Amino acid sequence: MSDFDMDQPADSTADADVAPDVAALRAALSDAQKKSEDYYDQLLRLRAEFDNFRKRTEKEKADARDWGKQEILMPLLNLVDVFEQALNQVQHAKDMRQVQKGLEFLHKNFSDFLKAEGLESLQPVGKPFDPHMAEAVEQQEVADEKQVGTVLAELQKGYRLKDRLLRPSQVRVGVAKPTAEKTD
User: Fold this and answer.
1) At the top level of CATH, which class does the domain 10-117 belong to?
2) Residue 174: how many CB atoms within 10 A of its CB?
3) Rounded to whole angstroms, how far apart are CA atoms 118 and 159?
4) What residues does each domain of the chain span?
5) Architecture of 119-184 per CATH?
6) Which of 46, 85, 136, 155 is deepest in the core (most CB within 10 A)?
7) How far apart are CA 149 and CA 112, in angstroms?
8) Tens digit of pLDDT for each residue in 161-184?
9) Between β-strands 151-156 and 134-142, what pairing exists: parallel, antiparallel or unpaired?
């Protein structure tokens, strides 16, 4: 067979063999295109569902924050009522002990509310200074070496909410007195 014969179209039996293959390929391509369209449609739907889910969860988070605020504000309103009653009593009080009792009552109610919410005050006085729980804002010279590095006073209360530090205490810490050097 010459090179010329190979360039000639194949006989009709060869065309008949190729025709079913082409038809099968076209059918497979059509199926693949349909699947591709279905997958693309599913992708668009999933994307829309995810966007809706994201928006819904953001709204639910905002609603939960608002509800949480409401749960805190309701007991605070009771404390405001007690405070207003105390202010009215101060105007009519003849004895300062009555005013003091009213303020103590108000302080106790407010402290109980904070404790019920998981807030507790730090108690650093008399303990070694801990920079993770307190901020040293003053130093005081002490003669007793046992008091060096110890918290002598709390100037502003510190608080912990459950196990987390909310605000460090501001404290006065004992420091050693400078020793006088002898000069000869």
Assistant:
1) alpha beta
2) 21
3) 10
4) 10-117, 119-184
5) Roll (2.30)
6) 136
7) 32
8) 988 999 999 999 999 988 766 555
9) unpaired
